[in-house]
Amino acid sequence: MVDKTVEIHVDGLVQGVGFRYYTTKAARRLDITGWVANQSDGSVKIIASGKDPQLNQFIQIIKDDPAPLGRVTHFSSNYIPFQSFNEFGVKY
To answer: Which residues pair with residue 88 across a beta bridge?
Structure first.
């Protein structure tokens, strides 16, 4: 299977609710590498790399909102040229 990279933008109640923590936890569980970061407009941006089946699972988890107190109101994702990362983490 080929590794891919996806760029994800999420809007809603996604800052201050543990969204980055739960995103990181899900990514590591699925062997996804990359990063998650809060954006100045209140959204969250994610760059994630991995195998197609795991990326699809990860995308679904993000769409469904991994944070118990969060709420995703808008979700977009685009595949971008492959990027290699050593692990998945939070970017500040």
So the answer is: 34
Provide the annotated active-site residues.
Answer: 20, 38
Backbone angles phi, psi at 74, to 5 degrees: -145, 135
In a domain, 90, yes or no: no
Pick from 44, 40, 3, 6: which is nearest to 22 by CA? 44
Domain of residue 33: give its range. Answer: 3-83
Residue 89 in domain: no
- Spatial separation of the C-alpha atoms in residues 52 and 75, rounded to whole Å: 19
pTM: 0.96
12 strand-pairing partners: 72
Question: pLDDT digit string (tens) for 55-71?
Answer: 999 999 999 988 999 99
CATH assignment at residue 62: 3.30.70.100
3 state SS of 53? helix
- Count up the domains in the chain and report the number: 1
